[in-house]
Amino acid sequence: MRVLLQRVKSASVEVDGKVIGKIGQGLLAFVGFTHGDDAGAVAWMCEKIARLRIFEDAAGKMNRSVADVGGGILLVPQFTLYADAAKGNRPSFTDAALPQVAEPLYEEMVRRLRESSGVPVETGSFRAEMAVALVNDGPVTIILESNRLTGKRRVPGPE
């Protein structure tokens, strides 16, 4: 699983001209799934997103989580995070999980974050054309991965 995480002042997602998800300060998380991702990878990623300290404290250090600042999370599915453009000019998406595998994992991620993060969680729409708007804060953009190319789950290091 791969997540492109952006610290934002605000973010929203529209489908067919209608806003379906919107947050103020918080985290915009673009989420992609690959082969072998499972509920364990989802659980690890949800905990990492909720606890990641990338908001500034009073001393100006990144030391606060999204819950600490009263923020929200906007979770947007994005299979293109697994695009491979190494050969030619048209990306291959063979590393992306098939929709029938990825969609239940995405729904599990939404459920887990809503239950455990302690913050409002808004969503994009799986398999929809979405227009995402954001005001980046910092900018702070971080890529998180639950697996490496070896297929072994990453073990979080000391914080």
Outline the structure in words.
- This protein is an alpha/beta fold and 159 residues long.
- It has a single domain, classed as D-tyrosyl-tRNA(Tyr) deacylase (D-tyrosyl-trna(Tyr) Deacylase, Chain: A).
- 19% of the residues lie in helices and 35% in strands.
- It contains 2 helices and 8 strands.
- Strands 1, 2, 3, 6, 7 and 8 form a 6-stranded mixed sheet that branches. A two-stranded antiparallel ribbon has the order 4-5.
- A hairpin with a 5-residue loop joins strand 4 (55-56) and strand 5.
- Helix 1 crosses helix 2.
- The longest helix has 18 residues, at 99-116.
- The relative contact order is 0.29.
- The model is unreliable at 153-159 (pLDDT under 50).
Any chance you could write out the topology, listing elements then pairs?
Elements: E1 2-15, E2 18-23, E3 26-32, H1 39-51, E4 55-56, E5 62-64, E6 72-77, H2 99-116, E7 121-123, E8 131-145
Parallel strand pairs: 3-6, 6-7
Antiparallel strand pairs: 1-2, 1-3, 1-8, 4-5
Helix pairs in contact: 1-2
Q: What radius of gyration results from the CA coordinates?
A: 15 Å
The CATH class, by name, is Alpha Beta
- Count of helix runs: 2
Q: What's the CATH topology name?
A: D-tyrosyl-trna(Tyr) Deacylase, Chain: A
- Domain count, please report it: 1
Main sheet specs: 6 strands, mixed
Write the element-wise H/E pattern from the N-terminal end onward: EEEHEEEHEE
End-to-end Cα distance, whole Å, is 21 Å
Features:
single chain; alpha/beta; D-tyrosyl-trna(Tyr) Deacylase, Chain: A; two-stranded antiparallel sheet; about 35% strand
